[in-house]
From TrEMBL:
Record's signal peptide: 1-29
Binding-site residues, heme b: 208
Catalyses which reaction(s): 2 a phenolic donor + H2O2 = 2 a phenolic radical donor + 2 H2O
PANTHER family noted in UniProt: PEROXIDASE 16-RELATED, PTHR31517
EC number(s) reported in the record: 1.11.1.7
Record key words, sorted: Calcium, Disulfide bond, Glycoprotein, Heme, Hydrogen peroxide, Iron, Metal-binding, Oxidoreductase, Peroxidase, Secreted, Signal
Coiled-coil regions listed: none
Active-site residues, Swiss-Prot/TrEMBL: 79
Family of this protein: Belongs to the peroxidase family. Ascorbate peroxidase subfamily.
Listed name of the protein: Peroxidase
BP terms from Gene Ontology: hydrogen peroxide catabolic process; response to oxidative stress; response to stress
Length: 354
């Protein structure tokens, strides 16, 4: 009896040290940023082992139909994390007391389909494992797969985020997302406040190697005066796509390989064919120019720094443990859903009574 206890204790110790070792190995060997308290590389290893394969398999199909959705999902994770932390607040519809994060100006160009894709993934995951995975974790995994499935690096995502119960206000959204018209000084200062260094800032901006932009996000560089740092032929082509300053059209952000996650965004900047001021100025400012050049010359280096910055971004002000909740539907808080059901029930009762 005693010997069984001893041996199973030993086994447990052995297994947990193996687990510890593998966690250590993952983060140390790849030189990855530390995992914040409450998150873990192996959070769902036993409770939902199929989580990552469900998300990846589904997204393989989604992107096969429309590769553009990858960019939408990557941007959604960025907006989620920068505003009030990675808490799924960007996914919430409306709000009780004012405009929500979703209806704030920078959000107007998030793709409607992205929200549907996240909730569809949530449904698939909850069907398999029960309601144990948050919408914010699913968004983080979807962003990782968006990067990988378009040609970018594969990387591990710390999991265990909880969904927030607070709406982010329109003001919080504006305060936390930098405008595309910002220069490098502004960009570096705003991201330094979130603990990102210049290498992180240049690497994160490399996400603009996939996806599209609406004309209004950059036409201030074309009209009334053309930005002198912009390549002339590139400017003329943009004017054809965006004949007026408030044209509704869209253009690709990386003209060399718009749907491939690679380092061509930096080659664009070196060729003065970056779309936003916030992009192009990275090659003008002496603090970031060499980083742009090095990423443009070495894709492996870019991928390493991008992964590093994404793992940091994915852990910004996360809710863990007993904080927040696991939403049953990504667009509404659980208590709102309950309230909605109660109201609906009440209406039915009333209707029946009348
Ligand atoms: C830090 C400064 C950043 C600025 C000023 C910025 C700004 C913008 C703007 C204005 C758009 C175009 C929206 C439109 O007009 O449709 C855009 C698109 C996009 N951004 Fe950023 N962004 C920044 C950082 C990031 C980061 C950190 C990521 C991800 C890690 C990201 C990923 C994307 C993607 C993938 C798209 C394309 C979306 C699509 O095709 O639907 N951006 N960004
Ligand atoms: C960057 O933008 C800020 C805010 O618009 C401005 O005050 C500053 O002078 C600009 N810096 C450079 C180097 O252009
Ligand atoms: C852009 O689209 C909106 C609605 O989709 C429309 O009301 C507006 O007139 C369009 N603007 C231009 C310049 O085409
Ligand atoms: C590119 O960067 C990687 C990662 O830092 C490095 O190991 C490699 O030597 C670099 N390649 C070249 C050609 O400089
Ligand atoms: C006001 C407005 O248009 N808000 C939109 C913000 O983005 C989401 C997702 O694309 C839309 O559903 C909202 O209508």
């Amino acid at each position: 009896m005693a010997s069984t206890t001893v041996s199973s204790t030993f086994e447990l110790l052995f297994i947990s040290s193996l687990l510890l070792f593998s966690q250590f190995f993952v983060s140390e060997a790849q030189g990855l940023p530390p995992v914040v308290k409450g998150l873990s590389w192996t959070f769902f290893q036993s409770s939902c082992p199929k989580l990552e394969s469900i998300v990846r398999k589904r997204l393989e199909r989604v992107f096969k139909d429309d590769v553009g959705q990858a960019a939408g999902l990557l941007r959604l994770h960025f907006h989620d994390c920068f505003v009030q932390g990675c808490d799924g607040s960007v996914l919430l519809d409306g709000s009780a007391g004012g405009p929500s994060e979703k209806t704030a100006i920078p959000n107007l160009t998030l793709r409607k389909e992205s929200f549907k894709i996240i909730d569809d993934l949530r449904e698939r995951v909850h069907k398999e494992c029960g309601r144990i995975v948050s919408c914010s974790d699913i968004t983080a995994l979807a962003a990782r797969d968006a990067v990988f499935l378009t040609g970018g690096p594969n990387y591990v995502v710390p999991l265990g985020r909880r969904d927030g119960q607070n709406f982010a206000t329109e003001q919080a959204t504006l305060d936390n997302l930098v405008a595309p018209t910002a220069n490098t000084t502004t960009l570096l200062a705003r991201l330094a406040a979130k603990d990102f260094d210049p290498t992180d800032v240049v690497a994160l901006s490399g996400a603009h190697t996939i996806g599209i932009s609406h004309c209004t996000s950059f036409t201030e560089r074309l009209y009334p005066n053309q930005d002198s740092t912009m390549d002339k032929t590139f400017a003329n082509n943009l004017k054809t796509s965006c004949p007026t300053a408030n044209s509704n059209n869209t253009v690709n952000m990386d003209i060399l390989s718009p749907n491939v996650f690679d380092n061509k965004y930096y080659v664009d900047l070196i060729n003065r064919k970056g779309l936003f001021t916030s992009d192009q100025d990275l090659f003008t400012d002496r603090r970031t120019k060499n980083i742009v050049t090095s990423f443009g010359a070495n894709q492996t280096l870019f991928f390493n720094k991008f992964v590093n910055a994404m793992i940091k971004m994915g852990q910004l002000n996360v809710l863990t443990g007993g904080q927040g909740e696991i939403r049953a539907k990504c667009s509404v808080r659980n208590k709102d859903k309950l309230l909605a059901a109660v109201v609906e029930g009440l209406e039915k009762t009333l209707a029946a009574a009348l």
